Amino acid sequence: MAEIRELRVDIGGRVIVDGVNLRAVPGQVTALVGASGSGKTTTGLALLGSYPPGSRVTGEVRLAEGGSAGYVPQHPAAVLNPARRISALLNDLARRHVRDLPRADRRAAARALVLHALADAQIPNGQGLLSRYPHQLSGGQQQRVVLAQALLLGARVIVADEPTTGQDALTKRRIVDQLAAVAARGIAVVLLSHDLDVVRALADDALVLRAGRVVESGPPARLWRTPRHDWTRSLLDAAAPPAPPAPPNTATQPVLRVRGLTARHRNGVRRTTVLHVPELTLHPGTALALIGRSGSGKTTLARCLAGLHRDHDGDILLDGTPLPPSVRHRNRAQLAAVQYVFQDARAAFDEHRPVLDQVARTAVRLRRIDPTTARQEARTALTRLGLPLDAAHRLPHQLSGGELQRAALARALLARPRILVCDEVTSGLDAVSRRSLLDLLSRLVRDRGDLSLVLITHDLDTARLAHHLAVLDAGELVEQGTTGRILTTPRHPLTAEFMRTSAVPGSTG
């Protein structure tokens, strides 16, 4: 068992966690729910003895004698060595368990352990991922590799920080089943999540946090049915699906057109085709959602649009003019026109510079405005996105994942883009912040008229914001059309399966 008693964490007088109590019981799942910056991650990391730099900590954290804690972070790329293949990362952990075997048997035994952990993390037989580097995996694949690492560690407590973030619906269901199976083996699971469906399906007990304090706790079935605190009710109300967008004006010429796109990954001298899109268009003032399973090619397509994936053939046209394949060969206007908001916002910021300075820098570099004006625009954009100004003056590591995601969106908007590519931008947000962000994106598209969105998402509620959907599977564009038509009458079997598996089954409580 793991236990936290009266935990208080403050940094420079700013309280992050204030008097939190938590018991992680073997064989059970305890969930921490709350807005970005509510203290969930700080509380979870306390079980590993890890705190933000400069923290002053009081209270007590205890693990059962001989026990250890494993961690599955919200941003998996942060804990995967980019210079080592997945096989090397996992074999290092597996070798610890086979040291007592005869030398001749160790290699085969270690590989068997790695494949077993990958299968438990929903990557059967490694699916060809062992030879790849972390940057060659999708966000969902990276998440599952990190889960395999935690399983290989043999921890008695696993802290899962948004483990379903960036996952498609089918994989999300599998992760729910996997974490339930982990708990069934007598391991305590501490789940930090914004996904209320996952919490309801998986958790035995839930703690609702706000501003570092637990405002309500109890079994999810009770909390969801009869919430006693206003903040809990706000979270549940905000989880309702958004209203569909107004019909778009498609009489204008497309702002973006993709023709005959074939993208490849390079592994040494080998080039493997990972994406094929014959035709795709985007009109001004519309939103296009790219949906599909993890690894289906959604992020690769988006990176091609932004000039971040150079190894591709075919044409990407902006207002009828071909865009250079590489971002290095695009001029300032082209760079500003297509802006990319990454799924892993933390990796997209310089950890040594205040967030406000980095947001403002976009307007200085791409629009050539003076730094003072750029900083004022940055403050306005950050405020509209719900990020407090005191947070804007902090360094990136002092912000939560959700807060940093909003800062990344503000930075992209300061370029005044024609096309905004959003890669799972709501996946790190709580229900209230997610609804606020989706409403803001809808208003931006409606009010500006010339801004178009490309939304990469596994979440069908987020996809409902879009006017059109494009469904990818195994690197192929299998279906596209209006959102209403595809959600109600999908024509391709893979699309229909994706729709069927979109709900997370409730199995625990």
Spell out the blueprint of helices and strands.
Elements: E1 2-11, E2 14-24, E3 29-34, H1 40-46, E4 55-63, E5 69-72, H2 86-94, H3 103-120, H4 139-153, E6 157-161, H5 169-184, E7 188-192, H6 196-202, E8 205-210, E9 213-218, H7 220-225, H8 230-238, E10 256-267, E11 270-282, E12 287-291, H9 298-305, E13 312-318, E14 321-322, H10 332-337, E15 338-341, H11 355-367, H12 371-384, H13 389-392, H14 401-413, E16 419-423, H15 431-448, E17 452-456, H16 460-463, E18 468-473, E19 476-482, H17 483-488, H18 493-500
Parallel strand pairs: 3-7, 3-8, 5-6, 6-7, 12-17, 12-18, 15-16, 16-17
Antiparallel strand pairs: 1-2, 1-4, 8-9, 10-11, 10-13, 13-14, 18-19
Describe the structure.
The chain has 509 residues and is of the alpha/beta class. 36% of the residues lie in helices and 25% in strands. It contains 18 helices and 19 strands. The strands form 4 sheets. The protein has a 6-stranded mixed beta sheet, sandwiched between helices. The protein has a 6-stranded mixed beta sheet with strand order 15-16-17-12-18-19, with helices on both faces. A 4-stranded antiparallel beta sheet has the order 11-10-13-14, covered by helices on one side. Strand 18 (468-473) and strand 19 form a beta hairpin. Helix 2 runs parallel beside helix 4 (139-153), helix 3 (103-120) packs across helix 4 and helix 11 packs parallel to helix 14 (401-413). The longest helix has 18 residues, at 103-120. The protein is globular. The model is unreliable at 505-509 (pLDDT under 50).
